[in-house]
């Protein structure tokens, strides 16, 4: 499993901000006020679940972008949870041959992905690093590879939003799981119902996102 030693080290860290809800990961920010929960979940649905006019990328590919951005930000909760969500979607769609690519994405590579996805991941990673480094060449490469304007828009939106989610998780030093299996149960729910639907998984689950 990619980055096991780093994952274990992060899981051993404790929250450093006081009076936080006793839940893991992004659940901390979502439980601070009811409105934050509604809006953070709603943003995830808009970017990763709901139809986006003109987009050709699948839900699984959107989750791959979220995984790539989170991996580049070294946010293990978001990296592993969104890789689990992508896995659940790929399994649902009988695309299990693509599941190993998630481990490739976690180490910062795009090897084995389609030309279109490689171009979109390059856009997302560039925006995560420094948005002013994004150039017309990046955009033209994505369009030439079959991406639409809407796909490029989603890459920029996902990179920007998940840099925020990542900083919420790690800025609070929210608890994260030492193993990726912790995210599997909730991943199946999210694949089926999205982020805003009430969870049937206990609130203390390491993969809480709702």
Summarize the structure.
The chain has 210 residues and is mainly alpha-helical.
Task: Jot down its keywords.
globular; mainly alpha; 210 residues; 0% strand; 10 helices
Overall helicity:
55-70%
Q: Kindly state the mean pLDDT as a whole number?
A: 94
Biggest sheet architecture:
none
Number of strands: 0
Please report the number of helical segments. 10
Strand content: under 5%
Write the layout of secondary structure elements.
Blueprint: H1 4-11, H2 27-30, H3 34-48, H4 59-72, H5 76-92, H6 101-106, H7 115-129, H8 136-144, H9 149-171, H10 184-193
Helix pairs in contact: 3-9, 4-5, 4-7, 4-9, 5-10, 7-8, 7-9
Question: Can you offer a commentary on this structure?
Answer:
The protein has helices at 4-11, 27-30, 34-48, 59-72, 76-92, 101-106, 115-129, 136-144, 149-171, 184-193. With 210 residues, the chain is an all-alpha fold. Helix 4 runs antiparallel to helix 5 (76-92) and helix 4 packs parallel to helix 7 (115-129). The protein is globular and about 50 Å long. The model is unreliable at 200-210 (pLDDT under 50).
């Amino acid at each position: 499993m990619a980055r096991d030693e780093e994952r274990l080290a992060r899981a051993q860290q404790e929250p450093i901000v006081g009076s936080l809800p006793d839940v893991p990961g992004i659940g901390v920010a979502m439980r601070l006020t009811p409105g934050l929960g509604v809006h953070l979940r709603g943003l995830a649905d808009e970017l990763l679940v709901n139809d986006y006019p003109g987009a050709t990328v699948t839900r699984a590919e959107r989750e791959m972008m979220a995984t790539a951005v989170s991996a580049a930000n070294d946010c293990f909760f978001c990296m592993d949870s969104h890789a689990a969500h992508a896995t659940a979607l790929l399994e649902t769609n009988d695309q299990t041959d693509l599941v190993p690519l998630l481990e490739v994405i976690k180490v910062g590579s795009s090897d084995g992905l389609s030309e279109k996805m490689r171009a979109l991941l390059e856009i997302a990673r560039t925006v995560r690093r420094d948005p002013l480094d994004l150039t017309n060449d990046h955009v033209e490469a994505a369009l030439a590879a079959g991406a639409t304007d809407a796909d490029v828009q989603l890459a920029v939106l996902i990179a920007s939003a998940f840099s925020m989610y990542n900083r919420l998780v790690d800025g609070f030093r929210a608890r994260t799981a030492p193993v990726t299996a912790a995210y599997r149960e909730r991943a199946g729910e999210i694949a089926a119902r999205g982020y805003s639907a009430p969870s049937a998984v206990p609130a203390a689950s390491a993969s809480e996102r709702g």
